[in-house]
Amino acid sequence: MKKQILMSATMGAAVAWSFAGTASAQTIRVDGSSTVFPITEAVAEEFGKSNRGVRVTVGISGTGGGFKKFVVGETDISNASRPMKASEGAIARKNGIQYIELPVAYDALTVVVNPGNTWATTLTRAELKKIWEPGSKVRRWSDVRSSFPSRPIKLYGAGTDSGTFDYFTEAINGKEKASRSDYTSSEDDNTLVQGVSRDINALGYFGLAYYEENRSKLRAVAIDNGRGGVLPSIATVNNGSYQPLARPLFIYVNKKSASKPHIAKFMRYYLMNSAKLSRQVGYVPLPGTLSRLAMQRFNKKATGSLFAGKGAVTGVRIADLLRKENAGR
Questions:
Q1: CATH T-level topology, domain 110-238
Q2: pLDDT tens digit sequence for 215-248
Q3: To 5 degrees, how large is the angle CA 232–CA 238–CA 239?
Q4: Exposed, middle or buried: residue 310 (CB in 10 Å: 0-12, 13-18, 19+)?
């Protein structure tokens, strides 16, 4: 298999899977969340091994950036780390784009520090809010907790086009996009990993897979939501103890694209293998029942969002929404 890295000023980094002798290959265009990227990347790579006539391109524009392309018909599939917003859905409708919303895995937004940081082993939700809220006065670690050293704090976080940014600000600050702005931001989580790994005074946040891939360079911070510090893991996401930073991950499929046989085949392969591959790249797989409900949603070509255009939402059970929808059809 030939793996190419494509670059453009408008698309950012994209990975394409193609094979020798496939100049006329059918194409599947994917863009969006850097958080969901590792899952889609793994699916595309495995799918390509037995589907040599199909070329899959996977870009990283952030959830918001991916939706900007998706709602005007530039892409077939959009990776998303939050549900589509009402404003994005309105643009899609204006352009005649119907879409199928599908959960593919769970994530645990992970707060990380440099391994040399020996003091911040646990942070409370209130302390995270103190650090990240708009107008925050936190400039040094001792501003967070008086027992912390008087060292400058260097912050790394998601860019404003990222669904991770939307979800984190909603979960921690109580309002989507409400955040201090004086931090190093990027839609590419690898940039954030590099920043934190090189600075003992740094703190950042991003998806669990990027932490799992870089455990030797980072240390996860336990989050205390009122019942003691809890570290992110498959177990703590599944048992509901890692709150409020556990969240679902999605892909959105253009309904018209889904009618094409090669894209329908790719989507069924994605849904059948997302549990195995999401686990391999460091995310929390959907339970089998939920995976089957997602497949039913795709097979029925059920369009629209289960979240009524609310964008980043916390504390909502996807299983309940899918069961309710399935019972009503």
A1: D-Maltodextrin-Binding Protein; domain 2 (3.40.190)
A2: 999 999 999 999 899 999 988 988 888 989 998 8
A3: 95
A4: middle
Indicate if 110-238 has the same CATH topology as 2-105+248-327: yes
Domain ranges for the chain: 2-105+248-327, 110-238
For residue range 84-140, what is the model confidence (pLDDT) as tens digits?
999 999 999 999 999 999 999 999 999 999 999 999 999 999 999 999 999 999 999
For residues 312 and 171, what is the distance between their CA atoms, to the nearest angstrom? 9
Provide the CATH topology of domain 2-105+248-327. D-Maltodextrin-Binding Protein; domain 2 (3.40.190)
ω into residue 115 within 30 of 0, thus cis? no
- Which tokens go with 24? 């006329």
What is the residue-wise DSSP string for 261-317?
Answer: HHHHHHHHHHHHHHHHHHHHTT-EEPPHHHHHHHHHHHHTT--B-TTTTB-S--S--
**In 3D, which of 55, 111, 81, 133 has the Cα closest to residue 248?**
81
Give this prediction's pTM. 0.81
Q: Compute the distance between CA of residue 257 and CA of residue 28 in angstroms, rounded to an integer.
A: 9
